[in-house]
């Protein structure tokens, strides 16, 4: 793993874990908070950001929901602030993995 993140205290035997498996992490690193953790080993991370509108010379608030793989060693729950990193596609919609939990709710 080329990017440096805090290694989780727990261990797991998940193939798609960037710390204990063989999932390479590369590309974008984003921050957001978990909106839904109902799926098995997958969470929905919501990102809020500002988008500039040149016509009105102002910013508008936007958001995006990114499905991310949630390894058992990190185990992010709803409301947690997390850092996600881009990886190879884990499934049809999942191309990000949770690499660090910043704060718990």
What does this structure look like?
- Helices cover 0% and strands 51% of the residues.
- It is built from no helices and five strands.
- It has strands spanning 25-39, 42-53, 58-69, 81-87, 96-103.
- Strands 1-2-3-5-4 form a five-stranded mixed beta barrel.
- The protein is elongated.
- The chain starts with 24 loop residues before the first strand and ends with a strand.
- The mean pLDDT is 92.
In short:
With 105 residues, the protein is mostly beta strands. It contains no helices and five strands.
Give keywords.
105 residues; 5 strands; 5-stranded mixed barrel; single chain; mainly beta
Number of helices: 0
Largest sheet: 5 strands, mixed, barrel
Low-confidence stretches: none
Query: What would you call the structural class?
Result: mainly beta
What is the helix content?
under 10%
Helix-strand pattern, N to C?
EEEEE
Indicate the radius of gyration in whole angstroms.
15 Å
Instruction: Please report the distance between the alpha carbons of the first and last residues.
Output: 28 Å
Strand composition percent:
over 45%
Total E-strand runs: 5
* Mean pLDDT reading: 92
- Name the strands of the widest sheet in spatial order: 1-2-3-5-4
Shape: elongated
Quaternary organization = single chain
